[in-house]
Inverse folding.
């Protein structure tokens, strides 16, 4: 991926000096760190390393996947499915479906449920364990943010996404 900057040097090896150095970091897809005082915001599909006083864990949320993409009639809302993967725990990490929710572009909050037939995740993710489960909600087409608040209060990680059915 590259960007074209109008009015800047045409040299591909030099970037304008007015750009912040962090903008030029080639590891833009690096894993972000999220805490209860400074939550991480990334895009769906990228992991977040959540750090708390009692444990750390890597968590990745991908999706939403929606049924019927490419159909001739696009509805204003659809069923959205996310896949959550947790791994790399340093101690027992509590897991509850109730700690996940999404907020759409209008500010509506959506409570997640398990995909029908999906086994519930364990109550904790233990060190060395990898846990994957799927969550679902019925949402409007548009932008949103999936969030995780493992203490039921403080969001530690958010994933930006777009619901598309066209």
């Amino acid at each position: 991926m590259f960007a074209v900057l109008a009015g800047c040097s045409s040299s591909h090896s030099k970037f304008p000096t007015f750009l912040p150095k962090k903008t030029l970091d080639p590891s833009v897809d690096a894993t972000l760190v999220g805490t209860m005082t400074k939550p991480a915001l990334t895009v769906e599909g990228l992991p977040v390393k959540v750090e708390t006083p009692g444990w750390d864990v890597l968590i990745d949320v991908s999706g939403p996947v929606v049924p019927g993409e490419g159909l001739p009639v696009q509805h204003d809302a659809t069923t959205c499915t996310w896949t959550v993967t947790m791994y790399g725990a340093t101690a027992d990490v509590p897991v509850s479906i109730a700690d996940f929710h999404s907020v759409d572009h209008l500010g509506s909050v959506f409570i997640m449920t398990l995909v029908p037939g999906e086994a519930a995740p364990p109550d904790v993710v233990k060190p060395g364990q990898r846990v994957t489960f799927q969550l679902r909600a019925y949402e409007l087409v548009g932008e949103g943010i999936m969030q995780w608040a493992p203490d039921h209060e403080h969001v530690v990680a958010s994933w930006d996404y777009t619901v598309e059915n066209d």
